């Protein structure tokens, strides 16, 4: 009895991106959602009158719980509608209005009272099946209370209101939330071709609590790339020379891909201490609802400073690199602010104010937690990380060779940095 959907849908890559699906995933969703447009399904518990009121999102919450609102369905004899790749937003809107105007047959939902799990990422949660406003996205392992089921659409409770989600992505079997994924380097990313060491992978950890921030912080434990000190990479994307000193002197166009870092006064490598702080920071950030992109989680990762930065640009919202300075003064914490000489250089020109603001917030967070601060908390420096960053990005020096890095001190540092990130985003 199914009336097959006669419309031709050609969806552009742009629309796929908007759905946050990979091309294949996008196609799948669209198929699932649009196949719903076949006409009436059998009615077991009654059918609502096909009135305009019944298709209003606000009205859908008032219908009897075991009967869904009328669902816009396509007229099987309707003229072909083509959403061509070149379509404008206005044209797309017009098409959806046409669909709503063609509202004909209702969907009947079988009454359910059960918990369902989502089996895919970025699944639309809609105010109405098929064409309703997208209220949010569901991801693998998310769960909802389902009150109604049809073979194409499930009626669920979402933030205290009635919403709909494609039944294709639901199951009553428990699905674990995705907690992490490996992130590989992509040489097609902007500036990716300037990286020389990029065979390693970072790990993206997802916040799983109910306090999700929707932000990803790149936590980059400085150094720890074996062989990195013998490889040279371009200091600046445009090939110009470095304007300040550092591990590579001013005037050079090429710098060490990853330097080996300093050694603490007790003989421990800076890289080890950086990683200890990074791991503590990761845990605090995840607890606070941030996703965390961990660049390095062991002694070695084969990602140079350009690769780390480009990866952060593409997979994170801000980038915090953890370091300790090579002095022996216990001078306190500070961040490397953006050097005046590179503020006009792309991409620094697009983001340096935000990087400096992030740095100031993090230093304030550390200071508020009792951490000693060096000077005014910043020092201008021309770093590879800064030169390639398209997101707010800082090199944080938490102390030097004689600073304490006991568990209790590291816990305070992690708290202070996280407080600073919170205040940056508040
Ligand atoms: Zn360092």
Strand and helix map with partners:
Layout: H1 13-18, H2 23-35, H3 57-60, H4 89-101, E1 110-118, E2 123-126, E3 134-138, E4 143-149, E5 153-158, E6 161-166, E7 170-171, E8 180-184, E9 201-205, E10 216-221, E11 232-234, E12 254-256, H5 270-287, E13 291-294, H6 305-315, E14 318-323, E15 333-338, H7 348-368, E16 373-381, H8 384-388, E17 393-397, H9 407-425
Parallel strand pairs: 10-13, 10-14, 14-17, 15-16
Antiparallel strand pairs: 1-4, 1-7, 2-3, 4-5, 5-6, 8-9, 9-13, 11-12, 15-17
The structure holds zinc ion (ZN).
Question: Could you characterize what this model shows?
Answer:
α5 packs across α9 and α7 crosses α9 (407-425). The chain is elongated, with a radius of gyration of 27 Å. The chain has 426 residues and is an alpha+beta fold. The longest helix has 21 residues, at 348-368. It has helices at residues 13-18, 23-35, 57-60, 89-101, 270-287, 305-315, 348-368, 384-388, 407-425, and strands spanning 110-118, 123-126, 134-138, 143-149, 153-158, 161-166, 170-171, 180-184, 201-205, 216-221, 232-234, 254-256, 291-294, 318-323, 333-338, 373-381, 393-397. It has 2 domains: 13-171, SH3 Domains (SH3 type barrels, Roll); 180-425, Zn-dependent exopeptidases (Aminopeptidase), CATH 3.40.630. The chain has 9 helices and 17 strands. Strands 8-9-13-10-14-17-15-16 form an 8-stranded mixed beta sheet, sandwiched between helices. It has a 5-stranded antiparallel beta sheet with strand order 6-5-4-1-7. A two-stranded antiparallel sheet has the order 2-3. Zinc ion (ZN) is lined by residues 222-223, 261, 270, 323.
């Amino acid at each position: 009895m199914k009336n097959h959907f006669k419309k031709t849908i050609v969806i552009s890559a742009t629309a796929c991106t908007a759905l946050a699906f990979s091309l294949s995933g996008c196609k799948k969703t669209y198929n699932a959602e649009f196949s719903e447009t076949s006409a009436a399904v059998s009615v077991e518990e009654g059918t609502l009158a096909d009135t305009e009121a019944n298709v209003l999102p606000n009205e859908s919450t008032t219908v009897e719980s075991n009967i869904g609102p009328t669902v816009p369905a396509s007229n099987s004899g309707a003229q072909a509608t083509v959403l061509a790749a070149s379509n404008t937003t206005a044209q797309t809107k017009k098409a959806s209005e046409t669909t709503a105007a063609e509202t004909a047959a209702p969907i009947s939902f079988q009454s359910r009272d059960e918990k369902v799990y989502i089996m895919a990422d970025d699944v639309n949660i809609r105010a109405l099946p098929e064409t309703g406003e997208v209220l949010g996205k569901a991801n693998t392992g998310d769960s909802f209370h389902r009150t109604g089921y049809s073979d194409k659409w499930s009626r669920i409770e979402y933030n205290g209101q009635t919403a709909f989600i494609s039944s294709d992505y639901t199951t009553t079997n428990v699905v674990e939330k995705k907690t992490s994924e490996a992130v590989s380097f992509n040489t097609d990313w902007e500036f990716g071709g300037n990286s020389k060491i990029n065979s390693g992978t970072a790990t993206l950890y997802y916040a799983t609590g109910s306090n999700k921030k929707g932000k990803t912080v790149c936590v980059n434990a400085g150094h720890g790339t074996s062989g990195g000190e013998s490889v040279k990479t371009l200091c600046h994307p445009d090939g110009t020379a470095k304007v300040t000193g550092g591990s590579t002197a001013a005037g050079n166009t090429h710098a060490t891909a990853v330097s080996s870092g300093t050694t603490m006064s007790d003989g421990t490598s800076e890289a080890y201490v950086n990683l200890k702080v990074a791991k503590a920071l990761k845990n605090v950030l995840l607890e606070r609802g941030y996703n965390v992109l961990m660049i390095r989680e062991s002694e070695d990762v084969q990602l140079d400073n350009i690769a780390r930065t480009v990866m952060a640009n593409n997979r994170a919202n801000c980038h915090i690199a953890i370091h300790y300075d090579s002095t022996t003064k216990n001078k306190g914490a500070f961040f490397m602010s953006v050097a005046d000489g590179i503020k006009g250089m792309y991409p620094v020109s697009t983001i340096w104010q935000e990087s400096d603001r992030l740095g100031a917030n993090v230093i304030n967070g550390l200071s508020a937690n009792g951490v000693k601060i060096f000077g005014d908390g910043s020092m201008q420096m021309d770093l590879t990380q800064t030169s390639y960053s398209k997101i707010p990005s800082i090199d944080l020096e938490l102390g030097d060779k004689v600073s304490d890095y006991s568990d209790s001190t590291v816990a305070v540092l992690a708290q202070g940095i996280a407080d600073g990130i919170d205040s940056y985003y508040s």
